[in-house]
Amino acid sequence: MLTPNYLIALALDAVYNNPLSYNPYFIAGMEMNRYLCESGTTKEQCALVAVKNRLNALLNPQAAYSERITVDEVLDSEMMFYPLSRLDMSCPADGGIVMVLASEEKAKALGDTPIWIRGIGWCSDAPSLETSEGVENASRQSCSG
User: Fold this and answer.
1) Which position has the higher pLDDT, 3 or 106?
2) Is this prediction's pTM over 0.70?
3) Is the peptide bond before 83 cis (omega within 30 degrees of 0)?
4) By the number of CB atoms within 10 A of the CB, which of 11, 17, 47, 124 ranks highest?
5) Are residues 125 and 134 in contact, defined by beta-carbon separation less than 8 angstroms?
């Protein structure tokens, strides 16, 4: 990996968008601008989301970015990729998870409170200039159980 943006760009649509070498944050800014125009949502309303998310992160000792910020601080932060400002955006963060899978017999032998996995599902989307249907599909799937 040459740069963090190189890694982030791998999330772009591999066939249509990645070969164009667009900065993924530039694409996010275009998507945000489109969302604001089509929905009538204001920049102030979006800033409330950034404020809420960082405030909620204070409740999680493992959250990467937790702080008390105000709507005015979000709106006044450095413009990065119009209309996204520095505090609208998430910075890259490192993280990891380990899950040990075991038979029922072994799980009961290893601890008093094993967690049973009843099913799994996965869906994702890549930032794309053509569509955002994948995100809509993923949200429907995750909400439907």
Assistant:
1) 106
2) no
3) yes
4) 47
5) yes
For 97, residues 6+ apart whose C-beta sits below 8 A from its C-beta are none
At 33-71, the pLDDT tens digits run: 999 999 999 999 999 999 999 999 999 998 888 899 999
At 134-144, the pLDDT tens digits run: 555 554 554 44
pLDDT at 140: 57
- 3-class SS at 35? helix
Give the integer Cα–Cα distance in Å for 12 and 43.
25
Write the CA distances from 105 to 78, 102, 112, 115, integer angstroms: 55, 8, 12, 13
How far is the C-alpha of 109 from the C-alpha of 88, rounded, in Å? 47
Q: Using H for helix, E for strand and C for coil, what is the string for 93-143?
A: CCCCCCCCCCCHHHHHHHCCCCCCCCCCCCCCCCCCCCCCHHHHHHHHHHH
DSSP β-ladder status, 84-85 and 79-81:
antiparallel
